[in-house]
Amino acid sequence: MGHALLHYRFHERNKMKIIMAFDLDDHPEVGTQTPDGIPIYGISQIKDKIKDANVKTAILTVPSVKSQEVANLLVDAGVKGILSFSPVHLHLPKDVVVQYVDLTSELQTLLYFMRKED
Questions:
Q1: How deeply is 17 buried, as exposed, middle or buried, from its count of CB atoms within 10 A (0-12, 13-18, 19+)?
Q2: What is the DSSP string of 25-91?
Q3: Does residue 30 contact residue 23 with C-beta atoms inside 8 Å?
Q4: Mind listing the pLDDT tens digit of every residue in the chain (118 residues)?
Q5: Is 23 helix (H, G, I), strand (E, B) or coil?
Q6: Which residues, at least 6 apart from 7, have a Cβ–Cβ distance to it below 8 Å?
Q7: Contact 103, 85 (CB under 8 A)
Q8: pTM for this entry
Q9: How crowded is residue 3: how many other Cβ atoms within 10 Å of its Cβ?
Q10: How far is 56 from 37, CA to CA, in rounded Å?
Q11: 66 Cβ neighbours under 8 A, 6+ residues apart
Q12: Most CB within 10 Å of its CB: which of 36, 57, 82, 97?
């Protein structure tokens, strides 16, 4: 999911722009850049990189078992808004806004309307 979002051209549709990405420290893409020049860092650098760039919004596309842990790192780094693709409810401070994207629900809605058309 994260890989697909990195290649989505947010900036062509509005002024949003992904400025950095993170993956496991030993992932082969760590230390490289996307074709659009977005640097990919190891997860161990997340706190420093986000603080240094004064990032306030993040997209969370990690496995469910890691979502709370990574969300905590994001909040500790100063993030105030998270778009989460994880089905896990995050327990975060009240001043952090979380928007959940539930792909299962979206797919069920799509299938419902497809059946309705038959």
A1: exposed
A2: TT-TTTT-B-TT--BEEEGGGHHHHHHHHT--EEEE-S-HHHHHHHHHHHHHTT--EEEE-SSSPP-
A3: yes
A4: 565 555 555 555 667 788 899 999 999 999 999 888 889 999 999 999 999 999 999 999 999 999 999 999 999 999 999 999 988 999 999 999 999 998 888 888 889 888 876 6
A5: strand
A6: 34, 35, 36
A7: yes
A8: 0.83
A9: 12
A10: 20
A11: none
A12: 82
Residue 8 in tokens? 């989505």
Beta-carbon-side half-sphere exposure of residue 68 (alpha carbons within 13 Å):
7
Distance, in Å, from the CA atom of 57 to the CA atom of 43, rounded to the nearest integer, reads 16
